[in-house]
Design brief:
2 copies of one chain form a homodimer. In chain A, about 30% of the residues lie in helices and about 20% in strands. In chain A, the strands form 6 sheets. In chain A, strands 4-3-2-1-5 form a 5-stranded mixed sheet, with helices on one face. In chain A, strands 6-7-10-18 form a 4-stranded mixed sheet. In chain A, helix 1 crosses helix 5. In chain A, strand 8 and strand 9 form a beta hairpin. Chain A contains 9 helices and 18 strands.
């Protein structure tokens, strides 16, 4: 498998203006090599030059990871003392003849740490943004990848269903988040979750990216839960919004609008249409209901090995949807200092339409 | 609190050759501002120029986070369309007059994404490594910080004690890791753990950074568990090594050597001595026992908000230990393709010596 992924990257490089790419630990490196490294203070860099045996620079203590690979790699190992690192990076870059070349990078992933070491080995090279070329490697999920994502959705849904009966007025967001993480693990998620669950009650729900805090659930709150699981290295990313006891009429109304927007977004998802259409379909519902200014983010983002990756469901994104693309549909309405609603599903484009991986009820359920 | 942290950074900048620093989401930004952001595809950057009101550039959907801050901040918000971002960054940099200045960065934290946007606003500036200046802000923990770390150690120890009776021959590393995460949460860890626990049996234990996999525990294995908890934003990072049933004599011997090395490292930790001394004390024990080449990493790293931060216990680090510095002491012996041992404790330097936060038994206990 990994050889064929090298072949695919070589083909992408040949079709691009790039001579090479450099990668630090992250999903692209893992997808390409099968190896996992943490982002640490010790730089790890894969240097992949067109039609050459790739080179990896890594610390001595990670040497075991390259011991039994099913493909060829040039391994450059450095000791603990940072004063020796630059020289090792230089040797790796020289082995691939990188200097003066066009070396693609992933700005969202690559840190200055790895960039500066790599650049020390190829100071006269250009380092253009290769995000698109590299995202392309992972953009269309194959059947195995979709099944892993389906597994991640199943685990997430089962975990939340197990947790719902435990939600009580007076519990802190933080407590609820911990309980949800436990349920995710108990239901089979890998320990490295795609992201820490968001559990936001009342006014905190008006902040789409709130961290669970000490606020206790109160009757009349809306409760936004945004959570996901990891299975076989692939993730799910879902949101449901609950009513804590009885909630005022406007909250019921905005929940219904978001539910319709979510359905409209899912219905717009099919091969051959621009990503923008998914955003527009969901946004129109919310705008027509008069809440347009309270839907402050795009409608969705790609998912796979990462919780946020290409393609993005944004009104200006004319990229066409293709079979195998996987993403979220997650419209929301956020009433500042009052409450928020978001409903998020996971969708994979098929040959004829879209496969919605998530099927938990979307109506507003009452908890507490 | 946050104002005084701005004051401290201003004082550090005045004492340095830097005019400003730029920070992306991470512990330094959180320490300084009290705000938490995830690292996403949307860049968030704090621009802090000496003796000016700091500026933050962030996406519209994060606006809530800056709504009720107890200090002044210039807020620059960008909409969802990336084509508009550069302009907003330029305005923020201009508001602080950053161009042509010396702007410190954290290469271990800052991604090319944020760097390139910030640089677009100050193309003629220099961007030197300010890791030391910025690490200095968090280097000496105050009493509140130490108590948070003590809490994180207590949670971690209680979680592992609760898990030990559940460890059985035939269980997969992955299963054990999930169980340990559940115990950590049940015992009060914040959901965002400092790192995914390492649970490595037999030959996997010879890889200091192995990820828990499908390998099942076997009688005769050594079992390395490296785990930690988060409490009040501060972390713990511990390791203990267990015997799965009876293990061969050499493994008992190396466990004893590592235990002695750990004790020697802890004993060397006191104010006024170089970090190198802690490394040397631990390493000498292992070298004298003839296993020096199997101790392939430094003896420890700083801990606090991050699982790896300054100061580093490395043989070449002549930085002097000072009261409030917190770090791990974690010598190990790794016999390739056979087994590994590591014993890791958390230590804080005091006025007169060191406070060892962790006190779980270090002798080799039998499990399974």
């Amino acid at each position: 498998m990994t050889h064929s992924r090298f072949d695919k990257l070589n083909a992408s490089l040949r079709a691009s203006s790039l001579d090479a790419v450099i990668l630090n630990p992250g999903p692209t490196l893992t997808h390409l090599t099968g190896m996992r490294f943490h982002l640490m203070e010790r730089p790890v860099v894969l240097m992949f030059a067109k039609d050459q045996i790739p080179a990896i620079v890594l610390p001595e203590l990670e040497l075991q990871k390259v011991a039994a690979l099913p493909y060829k790699l040039q391994v450059f190992v450095y000791p603990e003392n940072p004063s020796e690192w630059e020289d090792i990076f230089r040797r790796a870059a020289q082995a691939l003849g990188l200097d003066g070349k066009r070396i693609g990078v992933e700005p969202r992933q690559l840190r200055l740490l790895e960039f500066r070491y790599a650049k020390a080995g190829a100071p006269e090279a250009d380092y253009p943004d290769a995000s698109d070329v590299l995202a392309g490697l992972r953009l269309r999920k194959d059947r195995t990848e979709v099944e892993a994502m389906r597994g991640a959705v199943k685990i997430a849904q089962a975990a939340l269903e197990a947790m719902i009966p435990l939600i009580k007025i007076g519990m802190a967001e933080r407590e609820l988040a911990a309980e949800l993480v436990m349920q995710l693990l108990r239901h089979g998620s890998e320990p490295e979750l795609p992201f820490a669950p968001i559990v936001s009650g009342g006014p905190n729900g008006a902040n789409p990216h709130a961290s669970p805090g000490d606020r206790k659930l109160q009757a009349g709150d809306l409760l936004v839960i945004d959570w996901g699981a990891t299975y076989d290295g692939y993730i799910s990313d879902l949101t449901r919004t609950f009513a804590v006891g009885n909630v005022e009429e406007e909250y019921q109304k905005i929940h219904k609008i978001v539910q319709e927007a979510n359905a409209a977004g899912r219905a717009a998802a099919k091969p051959g249409v621009p990503c923008a259409n998914v955003d527009k379909a969901a946004r129109e519902v919310i705008e027509n209901a008069g809440y347009g200014i309270y839907f402050t983010h795009r409608t969705g983002h790609g998912i796979g090995m990462e919780a946020h990756e290409d393609p993005y469901m944004r009104g200006d994104n004319m990229q066409l949807l293709e079979p195998g693309m996987a993403f979220t549909v997650e419209p929301g309405i956020y009433l500042p200092e009052r409450n928020g609603v978001r409903i998020e599903d996971n969708v994979v484009i098929t040959e004829t339409g879209a496969d919605v991986l998530s099927d938990m009820p979307r109506e507003m359920r009452m908890v507490g």
